[in-house]
Design goal:
The complex is a heterodimer of chains A (114) and B (109). Chain A is built from no helices and 11 strands. Chain A is mainly β. Chain B contains no helices and 9 strands. In chain B, the strands form 2 sheets. In chain B, strands 1-9-8-3-4 form a 5-stranded mixed sheet, with no helix packed on it. A 4-stranded antiparallel sheet of chain B has the order 2-7-6-5, with no helix packed on it. The termini of chain B are far apart. The chains are: A mainly beta (114), B mainly beta (109).
Chain lengths: 114, 109
């Protein structure tokens, strides 16, 4: 089965630094998502992206966060100035069509902010 | 927020059936019921979804109550690999998935 690929699997950064998390969604998918999961907590929605623009975002997704689809294959999440509380597992997901199509999730990037 | 209620944890024995319950008493007529699971150190994985009728796929079955206020995910023969957190999610068509706490399923050998 096709997969969503995320790189790197682990990222360590210093507080205040910028990080970019990368995802390669499944090739014919049109809807893209970022979720995060702080250790021991729920999986939380951050943002959804369709047709080269954000379609929905949560309260977590503030001005420090941005997403981009720089080419036909990559989907990135940038955190401009990381905080300690940004430490979490970040999951990228994609789906093919509108409606109730299932989401495919990547295995995540573990971000540690020191 | 779309709310469901699940037990925090359940236990099963290998090769026995598992019935994971979910209550969604305030579900609206157009909300689908989705189930995802999360194995340790992995991203969520789709299991099954349905609207009104019972559904079967290669992973599981979904039994939806006639009034749609509850549903049950059925794993027909649990394996050790099925140990995971199972999430029952109400999802208005096309909207984002909102995860709750889920049910931690332990499978005993």
């Amino acid at each position: 089965e096709p997969e969503v690929t995320q790189t790197p699997s682990h990222q360590v950064t210093q507080m205040g630094q910028e990080v970019i998390l990368r995802c390669v969604p499944i090739s014919n998918h049109l809807y893209f998502y970022w979720y995060r999961q702080i250790l021991g907590q729920k999986v939380e929605f951050l943002v959804s992206f369709y047709n080269n623009e954000i379609s929905e975002k949560s309260e977590i997704f503030d001005d420090q966060f941005s997403v981009e689809r720089p080419d036909g294959s990559n989907f990135t999440l940038k955190i401009r100035s990381t905080k300690l509380e940004d430490s979490a597992m970040y999951f990228c997901a994609s789906r093919q069509r509108d409606g109730n199509e299932k989401l495919f999730f990547g295995s995540g990037t573990q971000l540690s902010v020191l | 927020d779309a709310k469901t209620t699940q037990p925090n944890s359940m236990e099963s024995n290998e090769e026995e059936p598992v019935h994971l319950p979910c209550n969604h008493s305030t579900i609206s007529g157009t909300d689908y019921i989705h189930w995802y699971r999360q194995l340790p150190s992995q991203g969520p994985e789709y299991v099954i979804h349905g609207l009104t009728s019972n559904v079967n796929n290669r992973m599981a079955s979904l039994a939806i109550a006639e009034d749609r206020k509850s549903s049950t995910l059925i794993l027909h023969r649990a394996t050790l690999r099925d140990a995971a957190v199972y999430y029952c999610i109400r999802r208005p068509s096309g909207s984002r998935l909102t995860f709750g706490e889920g049910t931690q399923l332990t499978v005993n050998p």
